[in-house]
Amino acid sequence: MKSLLLLDLTGRVFLKKEKIFYWLVSAFYISLFLPDMPVINNILIGAALIHSLYYNTVQEKLLLLKERKEIWLMFLFYVWLAVSALLSANQQEGMVLLVRRLPLLVFPVCIGSLYIREELKDRILLSYCFFTTVAAAACMIYALFQYSRTGNAGDLYDDNLTEAIGRPSVYVAMAVNLSLFTYVYLLQKQSFAIQYKGLVFLSIAFLVVFHYMLASRTSILTLYAGFVAFTIWHYGRSRQFVRGAMLIAVLVAGTFWMLQAFPRTANRFKELKNANYYSRAGEARDSAQRNSDQLNGTNVRFSVWNCGWELFRRHPVTGVPLGDKEDKLIEIFKERQFTYAIQTRLNMHNTYLDVLCNLGIFGLLAFVLGYCLLPLLASSRAHDGLGLFIILAFTTAMSTETWLDRSIGCIMAGFFLSLVSAWKRDLRYSNPVP
To answer: Are the beta carbons of 74 and 374 closer than 8 angstroms?
Structure first.
């Protein structure tokens, strides 16, 4: 607890600006898990922006940004979105969506132009893990209370599990993913910020089970694939093959146990067998004929992607202006008689397809370079394993959800991808920031 409160020896010698930044970021973490309180989020984001203006000099910011080309592309991408919004026939809708995406501009500007040194980085990461674990525990307690009242096992899964904080389970699953690998990172490097390893291992065990009950297939596959890759890399380079094999065996055994203990999550994966059932949007049943057996997250996504691809084919270069994109997609739903999608006004359920339809081929290229490829390259050059996982986790998650259509998605992507850039400094940087 002393580490979290900056009461240990290292925490006490942090510079004043670093302490202020730490407390602002910690308050921001709390706000991520508060239900329906956008005002608090906006106040904290604004405070972080103001503080960042005084954190280092303009010259230092420019020197850092010179090495962080991904930040320039993030800035360019938002400017592109602004032009798209202004060119919309429905400018009101365009401006609403543009404001929702504002964190994609603010965080690269305020955090991407800073340098966060190793000691402060570890403390910020530990704070994130702590508040994510507390939020997960609160969700679990509330869900168990609901289950005790209703006897419905569904209260312990998916979006019902995160009802206490009012956040979609897919975004909470991402938050838990990042927290689990951050815990592993801090343990592996034997960070000074970790004082009670037993408590950390207990938190990891709880979060693994909680994460599985969230039933986000993409996040589950990302987490387990990441764990296997880390185990092979970490124990392979030290030639501790037996220990590595034992850990993978524990993962397999634990997964098998959870499959038996929580079958509803396993059923989510069984939907993949029906991926083609609803893939032709023209064959959509009307509301009187539809039931839970006919529609699921997999076949609906395939249908939406098919319609989104058709929208791209009609506007491959310029795309559809931001404020008109949803209306144009609905028009295709109507052409295909995709009744369910019309009634629920489904979005693309794929961030890359959404950007492709909105900004065309070149807009997608700017997005992929700024948010995926260049950050991955920078993390690879810096041998930053945690940064690689964070970027890959977002890159994968964006393939099945439109992160830019939700405020929480824009906030999380803008913050964490900027943070990964902020803790890197090129070795050629001749005027280091304290």
So the answer is: no
Helices 407-422 and 169-188: crossing angle, nearest 10°?
A: 20
Q: What is the pLDDT confidence band of residue 295, given thresholds at 50, 70 and 90? A: low
Can you tell me the distance from the alpha carbon of 366 to that of 288, in angstroms, rounded to the nearest whole number?
43
| Calpha distance 110→288 (Å, rounded) | 51
Element housing 101 (H / E): none
Which tokens in the block code for residue 205? Answer: 């065990």
In the chain, where the domains are located: 9-242+364-422
Cα separation, 250 vs 201, whole angstroms: 14
283 pLDDT above the threshold of 60: no
Could you tell me the two tokens for 263? Answer: 């079958």
pLDDT (mean) for 37-62: 84
Alpha-helical regions (H) of 87-117: 91-100, 103-110
pLDDT score of 286: 36
* Residue pointed to by tokens 């009744």: 339
- Residue 153 pLDDT exceeds 60: yes
79's enclosing H/E stretch is helix 69-86
Span of 187-196, 238-247, 413-422, 425-434 with lowest mean pLDDT = 425-434
Residue type, 253: A
**For the chain, percent of residues with pLDDT exceeding 90:** 53
The secondary structure of residue 156, as a DSSP letter, is: G
Four-point Cα dihedral 251, 257, 259, 260, nearest 10: 170
Is a pLDDT exceeding 90 seen at residue 269?
Answer: no
What CA–CA distance (Å, rounded) separates 234 from 222? 18
Residue 196: count other Cβ atoms within 10 Å of its Cβ.
11
Question: Does residue 274 contact residue 309 with C-beta atoms inside 8 Å?
Answer: no
Residues across the chain: 434
Residues 6 or more apart whose Cβ sits within 8 Å of residue 245: none
Chain-centre distance for alpha carbon 335: 33
CA nearest neighbour of 99 among 407, 327, 408, 409: 407
Q: What is the C-alpha separation between 350 and 329, in angstroms, rounded?
A: 13
Mean pLDDT of 96-107: 94
